[in-house]
Structures are given as structure tokens and as C-alpha cells.
Amino acid sequence: MSAALDRMDADFLRELLRHGLLIDMGVDGVYGRSGLFEEVVERFSRLVAAFGEEDTAEVIRFPPAMSRPQFERSGYLKSFPQLAGTVHSFMGNDRDHAHLLDELACGHDWTHGQRATDTVLTPAACYPLYPAIARRGPLPAQGGLYDLYSYCFRHEPSLDPARMQFFRMREYVRIGTSDQVVAFRQLWLERGEALMRSLEVPVAIDVANDPFFGRAGKLLSNNQRDQKLKFELLIPIANEDNPTACLSFNYHQDHFGALWDLRCNDAVAHTACVGFGMERVALALFRHHGFDPQDWPRTVRRRLWGD
Amino acid sequence: MIDERVRRIVADHGKLGIDASRLSTDTDLYESGLTSFATVQLMLALEEEFSIEIPDRLLNRRTFQSIGAMSGVVTSLLPATA
User: Fold this and answer.
1) CB A229 within 8 A of CB A207
2) What average pLDDT does range A36-49 have in this prediction?
3) What's the mean per-residue pLDDT of chain A?
4) Could you tell me where the DSSP H helices lie in A74-206?
5) B60 → closest Cβ in A78, A216, A226
6) SS3 state at B76
7) Tell me: the pLDDT tens digits for A163-216?
């Protein structure tokens, strides 16, 4: 079954490349995007903003990298060491440089002298947010709401075009009391479903877990499911039998609050987020409505382009 | 006996912030502050202490809910000595 699924993933990828929507860069999961692909992403991003507009979130944009010490403190390495992308660079002298060039010319591994820099690629758009908000001091009684949008990196090369290594995640993040953030997640579970149904793609919402590493990860996954901490909105993309999570709705309890000493109403703050996988949504639209948006249903075009 | 070995593991790895010697065997450890990540440490410590491997189907909150629950799981996984 897995081989059959892999084949379907690869077939859909080939179609996307053939239509020029994605551009091969020689690495599985790393692609260029055409103007048309980007336009669909941009239109969807505006639609998300329209759905969230009345909440007046604070807009913050981070580059697709974060500080390594903050990343280390975030606990990401406990849960997802296999996905992390750390930035390394050459930090040697003239002799080390000559040695590097030598090894490169001989086709040997030249990377063992590379040293970790102070930056790590952002694994999820909200990771740089928590320490930045914590530095401001305690949150006001009503908590905070933030609008984030960033390229993210996860090391998981795949022929499934919906599993890219570099992809964009749009997020709304709520920080506040547990009641406030649980209500926020419920609101977006309903909004997110309405939003995607309005684009006339088949959707299902299900309890989910993150891809935690190893046997300890099995325990964390089971805990996450038992407590219904994560829901996903699923849309079939490359194949019908294995739908892809395009939106996710996460309640972190006080995990990030305790980690970063985020405080609200004299207590440790709780956090929740809704995440939009921007490329995945674009791929779902191409998959269900065709490779040329001119041919998409009028109602869907009106939603996205207003025409 | 097993209860006491489990209690020592909870004291060493549970990061509960309360004295493990005062826990009853059915005290809910999650209500006492046990986190998911500390649960992972308990899992690894139990496996090492009793030379067992907890099967995937038992890797859930119920297994680690209390000292008694962990003792029960450990007992069920130890080779029969009779």
C-alpha cells in the first residue's frame, strides 16, 4: 500500500512540475513556485485575513530563522530531533579553507568542519513568538492574539508535494487564560471548516498527533490524542485514502507558558494556535479544481479573486 | 516492594515539586503536576529499573497515572516467578 501511495504522490508531483506550478530544484521537497502558484497562495492568505479580521490580531513577521539558544530552550529537540534544520557555517582559518576546498575537489565530505551558527531554521511560525512576547512582561487581562506568517523548515524529504521541506505557515496564536485560548480554538475549528467548505474542497476534521520522535514519541502522541490537544482539517490531495492536514488547531495547555514564563492574570498563560499550511491549501485547490484557476468554479473564483 | 521501587523512580524523575514519599499509591500524578515530558523520563527509568519494555499499546496516560497503575503494568510485564 505504501508503495502505491508513494506512486500517487510522485504522479501528482510530476503533474505539478509539468504544468510549471512547481519548479524542480534538485532536492525532494524543495521547489520553486510559479507566479500563478504564488497568486493562489496570496489570495488564500487574504481570505484567511478576512476571516480573522474582526479579532484585530497584532501582526508580527519573523524571518524563517530563530535564535539557537531559544530553539534549544523550546524543547523542539526533545520531540522532533529528526525534523530540525540547524544552520552551520565555515568558521576556520586559511589552512582549514584550503583543506575544505581540497576535500570538495576530491569529492570527499567537506562538511565535517562546519560549525553550528547562532541560528536555526524556524520549524513552526509560532516558535519565535513566545520568547518575544515573554520579554514584554505579563500580558494584559484579555491576553494577546497574534497574526504570524513565515516560511518554515522540516527535514523530511518526500515525493509527496504536500510534504515540502520548505513551506509557509500562516498562524493565529492566542495567549491568555485557559478559557480564553480554548474558546479561540473552538472558534477557529468552526471558522476554518466554514472557510475551506466555501472553497468547495472535501474536508474532514479529526483528532491528530504531532510526529513525535521514537518510542517516547509514541507516548507523547497517545497523550496528545487522549487529551484532544490537536485537531486537523484534512483534504485529500495526492491520494484519496490518505488525506493531508491543511489546517491544524492546537491547544498547548501551559507548555509554552511555563517554558517562557508567559503570565496572564497572575497565572501561567495557556496558548493555542490555528495553523494554515499555505502550499497544502494551494495544492488542494489545484487538485480539486484543476491546474488552471481560470477554469475553477465561479463561486470559488469569487471567493478568492472577488470576480 | 514494586510500589516502593516505582515511588523512588517517581521521586527521582517525576519532577512533581511535592514529596513523593507522601503520595498514596492511587494519587493522580497528573493532578500532582506530572508533565508529558516527565512521563517520558518515568517510562525510560521504569524500563531500566525492571529490565522490561513497555509495549506501545500501554504507552498512554493511564499507565503512568499513579504509582499503583505503574506497579500494575510493571507486574504484568515481569516474567512469572512461580
Assistant:
1) no
2) 98
3) 95
4) 76-79, 94-105, 129-134, 178-197
5) A226
6) helix
7) 999 999 999 999 999 999 999 999 999 999 999 999 999 999 999 999 999 888
Put simply, the answer to whether B37 touches A219 (Cβ < 8 Å) is: no
For residues A94 and A116, give the distance between their C-alpha atoms in angstroms, rounded to a whole number: 19
The reply to whether B58 touches chain A by the CB within 8 Å rule is: no
Contact residues, chain A, for B39 at CB < 8 Å: 219, 223
What are the pLDDT digits (tens) for B6-19?
A: 999 999 999 888 88
- What distance lies between CA A189 and its chain's CA centroid? 17
Mapping DSSP onto H, E and C, the string for A58-108 reads: EECCCCCEEEHHHHHHCCHHHHCCCCCCEEEECCCCHHHHHHHHHHHHCCC
Report the complex ipTM.
0.81
Instruction: Kindly identify which residue of chain B lies nearest to residue A75, measuring between CA atoms.
Output: B37
Strand partners, A24: A31
Q: Which residues of A touch B (CB under 8 A)?
A: 75, 78, 215-216, 218-220, 222-224, 226-227
Contact B36 A219 (CB under 8 A): yes
